């Protein structure tokens, strides 16, 4: 058994007050002692997740979490291989997922690992369609959205990890699905690859009036609004909800660069909730962790049969992690953004 591992780790060292960047992280190299206690393994990361929630946890106030502490390895979901094992459950070469953070190697107790079957689905899907984003999309839409055939479902951030799945789950539930995304390429992805009923390029509609008109034209009114972005897009949508509409607040990425600490938009247009007797509900992936198998039982067969498109965008190189996180806020990804290391 190898005694040490040349480790690389990204430490979160400075709280951003705007866009997160390399300035808020330090790349450190060290040797990881490979000696193992009973039931421990050494995990070598192969895919590391960058997610918008990382930026939420960098806010100075409590959100659904206490702020991510400074001076520790950035926490994140990882898919990797077991390279040493003192566990009866895992052998060298097994693929697993874990919440081991932005580091090449990690010593983990076997209770922290989830076994992956590479013959069932690409292992990277454990960070996307068959992982946290898939769970968010599935329970957010089915439980909070309560889709019915014929409903008009509008999804913001529709070309992203969660949004692209919500949109497809909505189609399968018989909804008429319109996606909102930034740029012509993403809109083409929504209509041609995901076969949605329409797409709105929000970047092409600069004013509130223009965006509202585009949403009105594309939807004719909204039964379910699955919101990943908040801000001006949500301002444009809320006045267009229909009677008994369901609004699902999954995320507000347009506000994460400081807008959560010093919000410049209050709750707006909420009188329409009254006018239409609508409901608005926040949803959180972790509330459904213990129901993961329920989601996998439905969605994994769709992934295997190709009935669900699970686009992934890769960035190569461990040193790219902070830049990759930043790129989420510039819309560079289609589907799930992963760093391959
Ligand atoms: N509640 C939960 O448990 C939960 C779980 C997972 C994710 N989320 C939330 O869901 C949302 C999507 O997450 P994801 O992991 O699927 O990320 P993602 O959508 O794959 O990536 C982020 C996307 O957000 C869009 N975006 C960035 N800045 C924007 C802005 N100012 N206005 C409009 N769109 C903007 C970009 O797409 P465009 O090019 O289209 O702008 C970008 O590609 C995030 O708000 C995230 O926090 C919540």
TrEMBL record:
GO molecular function, one term: oxidoreductase activity, acting on the CH-CH group of donors, NAD or NADP as acceptor
Record Pfam families: ADH_N_2, ADH_zinc_N
Organism superkingdom: Bacteria
Keyword set includes Oxidoreductase: yes
Keywords: Oxidoreductase
InterPro entries, sorted: ADH-like_C (IPR013149), ADH_N_2 (IPR041694), ER (IPR020843), GroES-like_sf (IPR011032), MDR_fam (IPR045010), NAD(P)-bd_dom_sf (IPR036291)
Start and end residues of each Enoyl reductase (ER) domain: 18-339
Record-linked CDD domains: PGDH
Protein name according to UniProt: Putative oxidoreductase YncB
Source organism: Collimonas arenae
Gene responsible for this protein: yncB
């Amino acid at each position: 058994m190898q005694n040490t591992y040349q480790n690389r780790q990204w430490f979160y060292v400075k709280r951003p007050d705007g866009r997160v960047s390399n300035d808020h992280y330090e790349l450190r190299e060290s040797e990881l002692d490979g000696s193992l206690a009973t039931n421990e393994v050494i995990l070598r990361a192969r895919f590391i997740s960058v997610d918008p929630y990382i930026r939420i946890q960098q806010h100075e106030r409590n959100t659904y979490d206490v702020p991510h502490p400074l001076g520790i390895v950035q926490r994140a979901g990882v898919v990797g291989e077991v390279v040493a094992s003192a566990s009866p459950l895992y052998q060298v070469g097994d693929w697993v997922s874990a919440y081991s953070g932005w580091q090449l190697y990690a010593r983990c107790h076997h209770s922290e690992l989830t076994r992956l079957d590479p013959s069932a689905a690409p292992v990277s899907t454990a960070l996307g369609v068959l992982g946290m984003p898939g769970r968010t999309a599935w329970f957010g839409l089915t439980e909070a959205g309560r889709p019915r055939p014929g409903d008009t479902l509008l999804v913001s951030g529709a070309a992203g990890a969660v949004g692209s799945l919500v949109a497809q789950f909505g189609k399968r539930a018989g909804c008429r699905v319109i996606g909102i995304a930034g740029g012509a390429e993403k809109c083409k992805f929504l209509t041609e690859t995901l076969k949605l009923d329409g797409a709105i390029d929000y970047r092409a509609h600069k004013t509130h009036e223009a965006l509202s008109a585009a949403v009105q034209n594309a939807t004719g009114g909204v039964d379910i609004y699955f919101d990943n972005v908040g801000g001006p897009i949500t301002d444009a949508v809320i006045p267009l909800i229909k009677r008994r509409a369901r609004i699902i607040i999954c995320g507000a990425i347009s506000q994460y660069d400081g807008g959560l600490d010093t919000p410049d938009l209050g709750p707006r247009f909420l009188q329409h909730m009254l006018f239409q007797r609508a409901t608005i509900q926040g949803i959180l992936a972790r509330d459904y962790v213990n129901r993961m198998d329920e989601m996998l039982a439905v969605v994994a067969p769709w992934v295997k049969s190709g009935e669900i498109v699970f686009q992934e965008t890769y960035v190569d190189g461990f040193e790219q992690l902070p830049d990759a996180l930043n790129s989420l806020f510039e819309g560079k990804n289609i589907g799930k953004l992963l760093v391959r290391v």
